[in-house]
Design a protein that fits this description.
By secondary structure, this protein is α+β, with helices and mostly antiparallel strands. It has 7 helices and 12 strands. The protein folds into 3 domains: 65 residues; 129 residues, Immunoglobulin-like (Sandwich); 126 residues, Cytochrome c-like domain (Cytochrome Bc1 Complex, Chain D, domain 2, Orthogonal Bundle). The strands form 3 sheets. Strands 3-2-1-5-8 form a 5-stranded mixed sheet, with no helix packed on it. It comes from Botrimarina colliarenosi.
């Protein structure tokens, strides 16, 4: 029996994603109206052209017949009728545009920060996630800005797209209608942010440098009641069980994975595997990859650029706390073969986000520590009591 290849998955990639928002249907209707109108007139004009050529082509022995210079009725018909079509299309498109640009007053607001080459979605309760989580059947307004260059946020299933411009805010809104949270797995792929199979695709559609194609995320639509649960749980989750784990999470979620591999593979930036403690050539000479060099490279990437690589890394100045930078350093240390890392929160100054107690105050901040009594060692108290 002859096996016929299944081209359905391939063809599906060339067509629209299934509509999953309230505004998508109007966009699709207008698109298909213009498409089939164009197809109709293409075949009509082609058929008439072929018919006229066959009917009136020059033949030996046949004198050319006199033809009128113009016909008022025909000229009016092919001017007025297309004019009505153009006006109708404009009205349909303009009213749809106004609807897409005017968010409802009760829209749930989420802040979006674009940065080469990742997305950060910030919720009112302080949760920050690399994927976009939204409630179903509720308007959502995205307030977007860029930390570096021009980006553009595009969600094909919702038929929404808007440029994200540095130095200003842009907005878009949508109302998702099809939840997909039941199959969502929060674990992100080890190399590319937002590469889980579940969830609606979110792309950057404005070329923004070498990592543009990897600037991906997923849109997770939570059914009624579960979005609030996710939001509460996300706010309670501890950043990591150890500094090394936190460093790994920062590598995954803050854009490091797009350029720096952890398995030795060559990328846009140097691999982190077996790098710590080695001597490396830079545009400023030989350097030792130690704590100081890593910290400087995070805050001022252009200071010493490794040979063989271009200076394309953005600065993380003001975006990472000292403890988070230290966690990245511990993670890089852990990637060196034979290196045993047993970092604790005390060694890097406490859990990021926890209020640190000034050295001259007691643990509760009430009275200064007695100068005649030595303070207890930093590792004597649990991290959650500091």
């Amino acid at each position: 029996m002859i096996s016929v290849p299944n081209f359905a998955p391939l063809l599906a990639g060339f067509w629209f994603r299934d509509a999953a928002s309230t505004g998508a249907a109007d966009v699709d209707w207008l698109y298909f109206f213009i498409l089939w109108l164009s197809v109709f007139f293409f075949f009509l004009i082609t058929a008439l052209t072929v018919a006229f050529v066959a009917r009136y082509y020059a033949r030996p022995g046949h004198a050319a017949e006199h033809t009128p210079h113009h016909n008022n009725a025909l000229e009016a018909a092919w001017s007025i009728f297309p004019g009505f079509l153009v006006v109708a299309i404009f009205y349909w498109g303009f009213t749809g545009y106004l609807d897409l640009r005017t968010p409802p007053e009760n829209a749930y607001e989420i802040r979006v920060v674009a940065k080469k080459w990742n997305w950060s979605f910030m919720y009112p309760n302080g949760v920050v996630d690399p994927n976009l989580h939204v409630p179903a059947d509720q308007p959502v307004k995205l307030v977007m800005s860029s930390d570096d260059v021009l980006h553009s946020l595009y969600i094909p299933a919702f038929r929404v797209k808007m440029d994200v411009v540095p130095g200003r805010y842009s907005t878009l809104w949508f109302e998702a209608t099809k939840p997909n949270d039941e199959s969502y797995d929060q674990a992100i792929d080890a190399t590319t942010t937002g590469s889980d199979e579940n969830g609606y695709d979110l792309f950057c559609t404005e070329y923004c440098g070498q990592g543009h194609s990897a600037m991906l995320a997923k849109v997770i639509v939570h059914k009624s009641g579960t979005f609030e649960t996710w939001l509460e749980d996300a706010a309670k989750i501890d950043p990591a069980s150890s500094p090394v784990e936190l460093g790994k999470d920062i590598w995954k979620y803050r854009g490091c994975a797009q350029c720096h591999s952890v398995d030795g593979a060559k990328g846009t930036g140097p691999t982190w595997k077996d790098t710590y403690g080695t001597e490396q050539a830079t545009d400023k000479g030989e350097v030792t990859v130690d704590e100081n060099y890593i910290r400087e490279s995070i805050l001022n990437p252009m200071a010493k650029i490794r040979d063989g690589y271009k200076g394309v890394m953005p600065s993380y100045q003001g975006q990472l706390k000292d403890a988070e930078i230290a966690s990245v350093i511990w993670y890089i240390k852990s990637l060196k073969e034979g290196e045993e890392v047993a970092a604790s929160w005390d060694e890097i100054g406490g859990v990021p986000g926890q209020e640190e107690t000034p050295a001259e105050e007691g643990a509760d901040g009430d009275e200064p520590a007695d100068a005649e009594e030595p303070a207890e060692p930093a590792d004597a108290a649990p991290a959650d009591e500091q």
